[in-house]
Amino acid sequence: MNGLRPNRLFVRAYLSRGARFWLATRALITGVFILAGTDPLQLSTAVVVELILLSVVLSFVDTYRHRERAFIANLGIRPFVVVVLFATPALVGEVAIWLGRGTFS
To answer: What is the DSSP letter of 37?
Structure first.
């Protein structure tokens, strides 16, 4: 089963891409909520899920923009693994914000 795991370099690159797009998405959504006069840390679960999905979609669009689909397929990495790599930083970040909100409120 060792041959089926993605390379560490690949994992690190795609985790960092997912983190960058989550940070950008979160910053834009935070700005929109501040302009609307609401608390950007008190988001509903549906908004958080949409934010995570948006960051994953943006990461996929960037992957397609760089024409890396064939590269990923040639490495034998399934799209589900790429989705998990893109979504992990967003999930960890949102959980950290949720825990921090509970601690500091």
So the answer is: T
